[in-house]
């Protein structure tokens, strides 16, 4: 009986290790950040984006972009800062890219209606980690003065 238990355990660990080595998908949990968790002072000229399934009034954000165009998100329950690597405006919105080590974020946004004095944006947030990309549908507001491309 012990021999079968030892052999079974050995087989389990060997197969788990080799399976884990060939697996390419990296599980990353993109969470939400609330204003009381903001790691920096946010004071105008910022952007706030949340999942399409959440209302902006809930103050739960998937991505916050500060006035210096750097962003932060919560990944696996830790706040991670991303540096701005470029932004391209187009007629209907813009594409904004950020990176931090092996993490890359691409926002692809379309301008919508005005909410208060700022425009709403809808689109996608692509989170890429070591070549694997997860896409999230988002919406939010941008409090910057943006160029008018009409």
Summary keywords:
single chain, 150 residues, mainly beta, eight-stranded antiparallel β-barrel, 1 helix, 8 strands, 14% helix, disordered N terminus
Strand content is over 45%
Structural class: mainly beta
> Mean of the pLDDT scores?
83
Order of strands in the sheet with most strands: 1-2-3-4-5-6-7-8
What is the H-and-E element order?
A: HEEEEEEEE
Low-pLDDT residue spans? 1-24
Give the CA-based shape. globular
- How many structural domains does the protein architecture include? 1
Helix content: 10-25%
Strand count: 8
Structure overview:
With 150 residues, the chain is mainly beta. It is built from 1 helix and 8 strands, in the order αββββββββ. The chain has one helix at 2-22, and strands at residues 47-51, 63-65, 71-75, 78-90, 93-100, 103-115, 118-129, 132-142. It has an 8-stranded antiparallel beta barrel. The N and C termini lie far apart (77 Å). Mean pLDDT is 83; it is low at 1-24.
